[in-house]
């Protein structure tokens, strides 16, 4: 009555059910693990220089230098595969009410690396507005992090952006 | 090895054959209903996708399964979005790195980049296209299951495997006595 094929089928089906049960339990349990990340960004310098961008004429580029101090070690639990952190500048202009630009990002793959201390962080990506000029807006800088689990729901968080810093007027050369 | 089954097949009447085919169709249509129901619940036309390239490593590898949703809230920087460039079929899973929302129209101008790529996605967009918009996005990545999608990739790379699997399943349905 029970030949080899049926037994193999039964074992396989049971193994699949148990595996998915365990993965589901892990995925559901992970959001309940406590975490207390903290980060501090201090802007040291901003310079605005204008030059030709993508052949459509001069655009203003911002060069930002800042200090980053973050302790994201509490986000690392047994279901964390990696953390993706990014420094984001946010500002408002007359034509566009929400502007968010990633200045710098990094992938953190272990708990030791999650203690971040960068003292002269320059923006990795060009900081240019969708219009040609920043018109000396004030922007806030915050740290965003994305937690990527081994299995389950992706979560994210960020620091509050309560410090607004004005852009200087355009300068002619990079100091 | 299969003599019993072949004898059974020969003895099967038209009615039993029709019954087996109906069972098969029932299974296929319930799978389709579950899929479409999931698409409705997540508001995404394709709620489960398989990662096809390595441009988001080490977060997502080829063969991982992603669960998408498309809530009404606007896209924000840092979201991992699955989008299609207009005119092309292949969905791309990358992260939003720049966002400009027009005040008057609310239109979002979005630039994306794969974590493992050196440059942003402007090289991938259509010629002259510098931004993508909310309409191009078919979902944001909400959940993740590793390795499970490898089957889809194998079946795409080796289409004979697809036909063999369907043929095998069909045969199994027909000769199954239950």
UniProtKB/TrEMBL annotation, chain A:
Organism the protein comes from: Dentiscutata erythropus
Membrane topology: Single-pass type II membrane protein
Keywords for this protein: Endoplasmic reticulum, Membrane, Signal-anchor, Transmembrane, Transmembrane helix
InterPro entries tied to this protein: SPC3
Protein name as it appears in the record: Signal peptidase subunit 3
Membrane-traversing stretches: 12-33
GO CC list: signal peptidase complex
Function of the molecule: Essential component of the signal peptidase complex (SPC) which catalyzes the cleavage of N-terminal signal sequences from nascent proteins as they are translocated into the lumen of the endoplasmic reticulum. Essential for the SPC catalytic activity, possibly by stabilizing and positioning the active center of the complex close to the lumenal surface. Essential for viability.
UniProt record similarity statement: Belongs to the SPCS3 family.
Organism taxonomic ancestry: Eukaryota, Fungi, Fungi incertae sedis, Mucoromycota, Glomeromycotina
GO biological process entries: protein targeting to ER; signal peptide processing
Keyword Transmembrane: yes
Cellular compartment(s): Endoplasmic reticulum membrane
Main location: endoplasmic reticulum
TrEMBL record, chain B:
SUPFAM superfamilies reported in the protein's UniProt record: LexA/Signal peptidase
Enzyme class: hydrolase
Function according to Swiss-Prot or TrEMBL: Catalytic component of the signal peptidase complex (SPC) which catalyzes the cleavage of N-terminal signal sequences from nascent proteins as they are translocated into the lumen of the endoplasmic reticulum. Specifically cleaves N-terminal signal peptides that contain a hydrophobic alpha-helix (h-region) shorter than 18-20 amino acids.
NCBIfam families documented for this protein: sigpep_I_arch
Chief place where the protein resides: endoplasmic reticulum
Pfam families (alphabetical): Peptidase_S24
Stated name of the protein: Signal peptidase complex catalytic subunit SEC11
Catalysed reactions, semicolon-separated: Cleavage of hydrophobic, N-terminal signal or leader sequences from secreted and periplasmic proteins
Entry EC number(s): 3.4.21.89
Entry's family note: Belongs to the peptidase S26B family.
Cellular location(s): Endoplasmic reticulum membrane
Assembly description: Component of the signal peptidase complex (SPC) composed of a catalytic subunit SEC11 and three accessory subunits SPC1, SPC2 and SPC3. The complex induces a local thinning of the ER membrane which is used to measure the length of the signal peptide (SP) h-region of protein substrates. This ensures the selectivity of the complex towards h-regions shorter than 18-20 amino acids. SPC associates with the translocon complex.
Cellular component per GO, a single term: signal peptidase complex
Gene3D superfamilies: Umud Fragment, subunit A (2.10.109.10)
Topology versus the membrane: Single-pass type II membrane protein
Biological process per Gene Ontology, one example term: signal peptide processing
Keyword match Transmembrane helix: yes
Peptidase S24/S26A/S26B/S26C domain ranges (all copies): 41-141
InterPro entries from the UniProt entry: LexA/Signal_pep-like_sf, Pept_S26A_signal_pept_1_CS, Pept_S26A_signal_pept_1_Ser-AS, Peptidase_S24_S26A/B/C, Peptidase_S26, Peptidase_S26B
Segments passing through the bilayer: 21-41
């Amino acid at each position: 009555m029970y030949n080899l094929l049926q037994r193999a089928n039964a074992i396989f089906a049971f193994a699949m059910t148990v595996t998915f049960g365990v993965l589901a339990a892990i995925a559901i349990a992970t959001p309940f693990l406590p975490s207390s990340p903290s980060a501090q960004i201090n802007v040291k310098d901003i310079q605005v220089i204008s030059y030709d961008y993508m052949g459509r004429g001069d655009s203003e580029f911002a060069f930002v230098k800042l200090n980053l101090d973050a302790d994201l070690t509490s986000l690392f639990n047994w279901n964390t595969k990696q953390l993706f952190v990014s420094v984001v500048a946010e500002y408002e202009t007359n034509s566009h009410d929400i502007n968010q630009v990633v200045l710098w990002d990094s992938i953190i793959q272990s708990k030791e690396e999650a203690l971040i201390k960068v003292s002269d962080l320059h923006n990795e990506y060009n900081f240019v507005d969708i219009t040609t000029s920043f018109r000396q807006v004030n922007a806030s800088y915050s740290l965003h992090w994305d937690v990527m689990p081994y299995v389950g729901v992706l979560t994210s968080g960020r620091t509050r952006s309560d410090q607004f810093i004005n852009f200087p007027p355009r300068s002619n050369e990079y100091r | 090895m299969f003599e019993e089954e072949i004898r059974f097949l020969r003895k099967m009447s038209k009615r039993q054959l029709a019954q087996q085919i109906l069972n098969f169709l029932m299974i296929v249509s319930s799978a389709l209903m579950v899929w479409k129901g999931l698409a409705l619940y997540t508001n995404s036309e394709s709620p489960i996708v398989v990662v096809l390239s390595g441009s988001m490593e080490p977060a997502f590898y080829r063969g991982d399964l992603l669960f998408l949703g498309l809530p009404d809230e606007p896209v924000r920087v840092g979201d991992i979005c699955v989008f299609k460039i207009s005119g092309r079929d292949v969905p791309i899973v990358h992260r939003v790195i720049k966002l400009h929302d027009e005040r008057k129209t609310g239109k979002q101008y979005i630039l994306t980049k794969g974590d493992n790529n050196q440059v942003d996605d402007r090289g991938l967009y259509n010629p002259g296209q510098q931004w993508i918009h909310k309409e191009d996005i078919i979902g944001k990545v909400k959940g993740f299951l590793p390795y499970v999608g490898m089957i889809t990739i194998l079946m795409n790379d080796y289409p004979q495997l697809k036909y063999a699997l369907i043929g095998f399943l069909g045969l199994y349905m027909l000769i199954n006595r239950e």
